Amino acid sequence: MSSSHLLSRATEDSISAGKRNIAIAEVVIFSLIQIVQVSLRYMQEWRYWHHRKRKSPVRCVLYSWFSMVGLLSQIRIASSAMILSTSTPNESILTAELSMQSVGLSPLLFEVSLVLLRCGEAGEFGPGNSKYTKAMRVLLHGFRFPIAVAIVLAVVGGIIKMHALEVAGSIVFIVTFVFVCGLIAWLAVKSRTTLTLAGHHGILLILCALPFLLVRVIYFLLLEYGPVKFNPGYGDVGILAGMGLLMEVFVVSLLVTARTVAEPIFGPADIKHVVSHDEERTGN
């Protein structure tokens, strides 16, 4: 059943105690995530500063607060606050909640792109020092566009009850996500001899996040097309906690760790390379 057909029933029900507990947990967890990621990101921005604009404390704060993980945290806190604001939500609140559950997936995938790019700059300071080829940098930047378009199409299609838009967005999203998974797996193998040790380890951590991200993507699709138990407003609370909240926490934790490995905030930046067998034979 499409998500657009679930809202009318939801307005007749009150928010369950379990759903309210999940909302409280989201506010607490993502508030903590925001505090941690802003602190780490500020120190990374100040130390490495890969942007072409002049470095300043204000710019570091802005880049930290409005990072993709920061935006996800703010979306989750806002959507949970709406749920906690009333025990009998109207259709507008439930529509906004459903949209935020879907739109919140795009910052995660955008952060994957940005952390991959940072892995290519691991061990370097300042702008323009990536070890990726230009074509690879274009790919890592470029896949964010179809992801954004796909999620907007799927969400808008659900809101205005245009099934063709939902399907088109879902197809584009699935194809792009499969491409991204393949690209990360390829980088995990090929980057061993081109990136620093820290950069390669960062990519391996992103690779470890993919199974959890896959579950979150499946949950996104089930929100659109699955049975009523997947509805975030009044469906199964265990599914919302397990496939939604828990998966996002795992993915965010691994992405923040990957960025910290690629851009350590203390000690010397790791610029060692993993030497291939061919390079060892050449050296001998």
Output the CATH homologous superfamily.
Rhodopsin 7-helix transmembrane proteins
Please state the second-level CATH architecture: Up-down Bundle
Report the end-to-end length measured between terminal Cα atoms.
64 Å
Text of the CATH class: Mainly Alpha
The portion of residues forming beta strands comes to under 5%
Secondary structure tally, helices: 12
Average pLDDT number? 82
Pfam families: DUF7702
Keywords: Membrane, Transmembrane, Transmembrane helix
InterPro entries: DUF7702 (IPR056119)
Protein name: DUF7702 domain-containing protein
Fold and architecture overview:
By secondary structure, the chain is an all-alpha fold. It has one domain: Rhodopsin 7-helix transmembrane proteins (Rhopdopsin 7-helix transmembrane proteins). 73% of the residues lie in helices and 0% in strands. Mean pLDDT is 82; it is low at 1-12 and 271-284. Residues 21-256 form the DUF7702 domain.
Key phrases:
disordered C terminus; 12 helices; Rhopdopsin 7-helix transmembrane proteins; mainly alpha; 0% strand; 284 residues; 73% helix
Summarize the model shown:
It contains 12 helices and no strands.
Q: How is this fold's topology laid out?
A:
Elements: H1 7-10, H2 17-48, H3 57-65, H4 68-84, H5 91-103, H6 105-120, H7 134-142, H8 144-159, H9 163-190, H10 197-225, H11 237-262, H12 277-283
